Amino acid sequence: MNNKSLIERFITIIENDIDKSSIECNGKDFTFKVNDSSSKEDILLFLNDLFVNVEDLLANKISLNLEKVKIENAFFFFDFKSFQSGYLSYKNVFDDSDIVILKTNNKLEIKYKNEENILLQNYNIYRKTIDYLNGNPLFASIPTTTNEFLLITKEFGFIHIGYNLHEDRTKDFETLKQDFERLKLLFEKKEFIQFFKENIGNIGIHQHDIKDRFYYFLKNLNSLLNLSEKDLDNYILEFSFEKIKSKFKDERNKYFEGLEKNIELISKQVVSFPLTFAATAFASYQVKDKSLILFLIFIAYLLYTIIAFRILKITSYNIECLEFDIEKEEESIKNNYSKVYEEFKTDFDKINRKTKKIKDLLLYLKAILLSMLFLFFGYVIYQIVFFKADKQKEMISIPIDKVNFIQVDSVNNNYNNLNVKSIRLTNHNTKDSVNNPSEEIKIGSNKNIKTNKLPLKK
Fold first, then answer.
1. How confident is the model at residue 31 (pLDDT cuts 50, 70, 90)?
2. Phi and psi at residue 457, in whole multiples of 5°?
3. Which secondary structure element, helix H or strand E, spans residue 448, and what is its range?
């Protein structure tokens, strides 16, 4: 059987199988007499599955300890006072617990796991509120050993707010859970707490008896929160608006300066990329027939690309850090000064758009840098593998018996060929030379001229 089934069976026994006039309880030891029409053995058998200490007494009576339960997160109390006294046992598991109070205004009070019971829930929130306020030094400025808060206010001086741990009027708080959650949220703003304390005096709480003041404090909690929140908003708009605005302007200028510095760094890279690539391409073309030098140029360009990537990576990191700072600043202003944030929202949007464009530009530059590297690599491979140029030697044959005059600037002594640096040939018997009795033929440098194997001397 699950917890709920066991509890329902126990409640059936309490309502139908015992003599209610025989019930005795000192807070934890619960004693009762079983009706003559009911089976005491069956009841004992069931109770032993539910409680640790179950005693079979004379006169058809049974005694059990309500605090000793075998099932997890189940709590049994005799009356509401016992429930209040046992707060520490269930405070951390209240929502996940099954709670049964046997006698509350002559009726049972039950809260099953993850279900609500306003009476029990309100008391739990009542105690949580006391614990929370006691643990906040900005609210309870001076700790006390008695059941009271001691507040220090500018207008009313010291204010004592007493509370009763066994308050029976918690059912009067209709929205206590929602008010408590809102209180915790607003107390995250330090300025709010001071306005809140001042308004406690403004609602006239000091006119009530000290022991009743916390009850009236909770009765007016929603109004106190509304009033204090309004005061905080007015304070922000009237007194701190210019300060916040001035501070953010300084921060905004710092962000824009950071962006400009990164843009300047990127601009240098944008200029250097094409210049470096053009210089590399020109140098490689000049030595295209020398594979080793071409390969060394490629290695140098590869190293340049790696360094350029590192520089772009540093710039990317700077942008990411700047983006994080901007986001943090925006979130802070939005959460703490929501009304002021509206004026600066446009500036934040501009900064965010500019940051995004710079990040996109960095991606484009990295892609271009890689593209140029692969393009140059392809060119190097193409030159080495497919267009390995050999210096071609040009050959011309000239019959020596047709030449009347040879002017040679330099001749290598070779019996088969004339290897000359520069020559001039003159033929005076050309048939086509009617008006020109002589014709000269000039041949460029570094030519091989066959001489019909006539031996020549320098």
1. very high
2. -125, 150
3. strand 447-450
